[in-house]
Amino acid sequence: MNAAVSEEIVNKRGKVSSPVWQFFGYYKSDRSQTNVVSKLCKTVVPAKTGNTTNLMYHLSRAHPLEHSRIQQTTSVAATPHKQQITMERYSASVPYDKESKRYKDITEAVAYFSVYI
Ligand SMILES: [Zn+2]
């Protein structure tokens, strides 16, 4: 551990164009914000200003978990998949509801009958 490694990483100044920036910043001493640093592994990632291609590449290669998290928040393909699962669960639950209702009726009928024994 040296001073440079423990140095604070600050967020990119101004409006960020991509959610990938939550995992990247600049060393506080880098006042001109020229060297992009990975917050996760404190590695300087060569990237031109505003270009997130290399940042995405670094994330996918070095931090696949965080990369997949970003993919989930930005990808629209994840939504129909979730809806499909919900529909499958709903249709599967219908016969069970009928069965439990019938079972409940039988139970109540038996209980009712038992009173008059
Ligand atoms: Zn990293």
Automatic annotation (TrEMBL):
Name all BED-type domain ranges: 15-70
Transmembrane helix among the record's keywords? no
Q: Which domain of life is it from?
A: Eukaryota
List the InterPro entries: Znf_BED, Znf_C2H2_sf
Q: Cite the entry's keywords alphabetically.
A: Metal-binding, Zinc, Zinc-finger
Query: Which molecular function GO terms apply here?
Result: zinc ion binding
Pfam families, per the entry:
zf-BED
Q: Specify whether Zinc-finger is a keyword of the entry.
A: yes
Q: What is this protein called?
A: BED-type domain-containing protein
Organism for this UniProt entry = Cirrhinus mrigala
